[in-house]
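Sorry to interrupt, but I need a hand with the structure work. Can you supply me with one protein entry, sequence and fold together? No commentary is needed, just the two lines. Leave the record below and I will have a look.
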Amino acid sequence: MNEGSPIDPEVLRRMREVIVTAIATRRISVTEAAAEAPGLGRGLQPALHASTIDAAVTQILRSLGACQPQPEPVQVDGQWLHSVSQPEVADSLAYAMRSDATGKARRTGAEYVAPAAAEQLLRQLAMSGYVLMRRGGPPARST
């Protein structure tokens, strides 16, 4: 972050360390590691607004090369399509394999296989050249 940041540089250093260590030693996803850092930031500087901490985490992820700006939504056949990340799609696929249409858990053992199967499906889709998008509203206007 910049010199005028309201976040103490030591807090920023520790948040960065949490993210890097979680990814490197515990082999968790970037999303999970990034979710741990704001809790540390809020714990060390509770007076800061959550959006300030979230902005700091985003800046840390960008500096690590893990957080790229989202492409602009496109309109196709009257519907706005937004890009999605592979972890978002993998989570949705895994949820679909673990749960029925009502959201009730299936107790068939699939809950253990679902994340691996979702990752394999994503790899196959990417190798086949598919681009996954999500329906949503029009893009926010910047004034």
Summary: Residues 94 and 113 are 9 Å apart (CA to CA). The chain has a mean pLDDT of 79. The beta strands are 74-76, 79-83, 133-136. DSSP finds five helices and three strands in the chain.
